[in-house]
């Protein structure tokens, strides 16, 4: 296997999908997923997240372009490509009366894998399902059912795991448990691709983030680089005496009043990094020259949620 192939486990090239009736769900998407990473795909409802996953997994054929999964074409070499993928859908569609052990074992058999009770046991234990192995699905909580979906997806030992809204409808405590499960899978060498509406989920877990809107992939970037490049920092200066307006001599700093005149807010690019490039030193000097005393100051950086909202709100 070549070095480039080792590094890229999924390659999407010029992918477009137009459904009957003319709806264009994907538009010329190019994407590379790196082996062993957690990749989060963010986008509003109807943006094309599930369609993109469905095409990569071979469940929907593209109108144009192609997908390579570990070097295998998802259409021409469907079986080879699909065998490398585990998919956890949004919907809880388990048979209510089947037992946990049986449904996970059956999923392994669907991919032509020989029985391997030791592997099924490892999967169930890793997901805290071992004590529930003889339970029927109908007796499980929603969170446990979602864990069973992950177990089923891992039953045939895939290299890649797709999680479509993995914690939808799950309470906050269980959501964090699920995050830990996903991290453990990544540490075990599984490549994770997840879609999510929870921005904190991507901010907490992802190595890289893609943002999709109206079928177009707007950007793909490392999480920390994204926040540095697109994020903003705010410096709030708490004043000893309130101001009615921002003095004209400070206009070049684009300050805004806050806290009923008791604070000034200065916004600057996080990308500037060092304080010298932010204009803060000049601002403080101008404040002193204007006779405005500052008693305290603090900074905050834009969250990933604010960055995401700013990207998708541009949609016409």
From TrEMBL:
Domain of life: Bacteria
Domain ABC transporter per the UniProt entry, residue ranges: 10-239
GO molecular function, one term: ATP hydrolysis activity
KW Transport (keyword) present: yes
Keyword line: ATP-binding, Nucleotide-binding, Transport
InterPro entries xrefs: AAA+_ATPase, ABC_transporter-like_ATP-bd, ABC_transporter-like_CS, ABC_transporter_ATP-binding, P-loop_NTPase
TM annotation in the entry: none
Coiled coil: none
Database matches in Pfam families: ABC_tran
CDD domains: ABC_DR_subfamily_A (cd03230)
SUPFAM superfamilies linked: P-loop containing nucleoside triphosphate hydrolases
PANTHER family: ABC TRANSPORTER ATP-BINDING PROTEIN
Name of the protein: ABC-2 type transport system ATP-binding protein
């Amino acid at each position: 296997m070549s070095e480039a192939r080792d590094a890229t486990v999924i390659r999407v090239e010029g992918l477009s999908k137009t459904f009957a009736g003319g709806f264009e769900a994907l538009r010329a998407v190019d994407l590379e997923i790196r082996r062993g990473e957690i990749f989060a795909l963010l986008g509003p409802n109807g943006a094309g997240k599930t369609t993109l996953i469905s095409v990569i997994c071979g469940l929907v054929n593209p109108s144009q372009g192609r997908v390579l999964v570990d070097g295998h074409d998802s259409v021409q070499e469907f079986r080879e490509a699909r065998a490398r993928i585990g998919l956890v859908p949004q919907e809880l569609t388990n048979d209510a009366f089947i037992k946990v052990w049986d449904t996970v074992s059956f999923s392994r058999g669907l991919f032509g894998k020989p029985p391997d009770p030791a592997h099924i046991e490892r999967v169930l234990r890793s997901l805290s399902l071992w004590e529930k192995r003889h339970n029927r699905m109908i007796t499980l909580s929603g969170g446990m059912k979602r864990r069973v979906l992950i177990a089923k997806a891992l039953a045939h030992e895939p290299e890649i795991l797709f999680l479509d809204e993995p914690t939808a409808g799950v309470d906050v405590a269980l959501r964090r448990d699920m995050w830990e499960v996903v991290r453990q899978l990544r540490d075990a060498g599984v490549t994770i691709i997840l879609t999510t509406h929870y921005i904190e989920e991507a901010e907490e877990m992802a190595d890289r983030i893609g943002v999709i809107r109206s079928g177009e992939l707007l950007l793909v970037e490392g999480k920390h680089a994204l926040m540095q490049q697109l994020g903003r920092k705010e410096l709030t200066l708490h004043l000893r005496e309130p101001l009615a307006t921002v003095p004209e001599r400070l206009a070049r700093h684009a300050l805004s009043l806050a806290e009923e005149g008791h604070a000034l807010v200065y916004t600057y690019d996080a990308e500037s990094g060092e304080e010298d490039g932010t204009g803060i030193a000049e601002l403080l000097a101008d404040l002193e020259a204007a006779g405005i005393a500052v008693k305290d100051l603090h900074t905050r950086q834009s969250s990933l949620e604010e960055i995401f909202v700013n990207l998708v709100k541009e949609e016409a």
